[in-house]
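Appendix B. One record, verbatim.
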Amino acid sequence: MFTGKNVSKKNKGIALLIALIFVAVFSALSVAMFAMSSSNTLVASNLHRVNEARSSTESGLETMRYYLAKVEIPWNTPQGLWFETLKNQLLGSGFIPAGFNAIWDADTGILSIGESSPIALSSDGSKTFWAQISENAGSVQLRVTGNAGSINRRIQGRFNYGEKPEPFSVFDFGVATKGPLSLAGNILLSGVNISVESDVYIESMSQNQALEIIGNSQIAGDVKIVNPDGTVTLQGGQAGIGGETGAAAIENHVTVGAPQTLFPVPDASHFEQFVNGVTIDSSNIAGYGSNATLENVRIAARTNPTFGGNCTINGVLFIEQPNTVTFTGNANITGVIVGDGDYTDNSGTNKLDFQGTVSSTSVTVLPQTEQFAGLHDETGTFVMAPGFEVSFGGNFGTLNGCIAANGVDFYGNAGGTIGGSVLNYSDEPMTLSGNSDLRFNRTGNTGIPAGFDTVLNIELRYDPSAYDEVL
């Protein structure tokens, strides 16, 4: 007897068919997953290269911001020449690395940095950037292109012009001189209230011998020297700075390579509005030789007067150039002495010499008359004589304001209190000799003295609001 189950021929091969279907489905899924994975890998790779290109662009932007931040346009440059000055500084030797290949195209007005040979950001040179700088509506436009392989991205930004803040003011010093400073004899520079009132600022960019102290001379405050190669010479056992002598004085109280500050521009014409008195010239000088009283007086050019006896000056004494003005006797001054020379003139053609005793009183005590109207507020300045050599040979009590000239000399027994700073605009040495003890009282002097124009150079300031990715 046959007991086995009957199998229909119709069902033969079903399992194989189903298996083949599953194999096909899974194969298709595998192919799809492989294709998707490959696509995702390719997308990720492309995105990585795009991000590298953008990273190169951002790096290039920061690099150019660093170099553009170093641009400093002199304050007296006409605004129409600001971009020209910027371009010349960037093209100048040593301003930016020579390998950056800075090229100016006068036809397009574009300064390209690294366009002919992109600047490498990686050791293998796979990531680079180049930049274009141009003028645009009173500002500076920067466009940076970054590369990573065959991918590039571009960013553009804007820099605006702005005044660069001063690192400090020359009026923060008792003495500020563009040229070297020399003290010889028994000289003491000190502060009436604190020693910092007698601090000294020296540029001395044309001479490495910036400070020389000989004999028993001393500076009670500290000294800042701009010239990075500036040297200090102390000769004599008592020659000192900051209360110390020898090497300790230089090590503890002298800074070499100090930040440079801008000297304010002395504007002699500011005081000319107050000159309403007589004009002294060769025709009438004989009447003012001795014991003269000068009120808002102008001294004409080439008069070269000498005032003897007790000369009284009220208001403004305005001296035209060229001139040599000498006071052989006592000078009693309630006002301001002004020379209308050029603060860049170091020729020594113009001179102002006080050989006798000088007494000085502030303009605030001038009579409240129409003759001196408006002058009472012009405080802080005693002598403003750009282009003039100014020298003092006699004693004085207190000089009520700063002294500014191209060459300042204290000699003989000159000495006393100065209610402000002494500014020497000349590159030639400023000398103090004999027994010229100067005490500086700058307490309460917070504003700029009358007649001085503060000067601020122009810098470039990045404007983040102008950041834009260029497609």
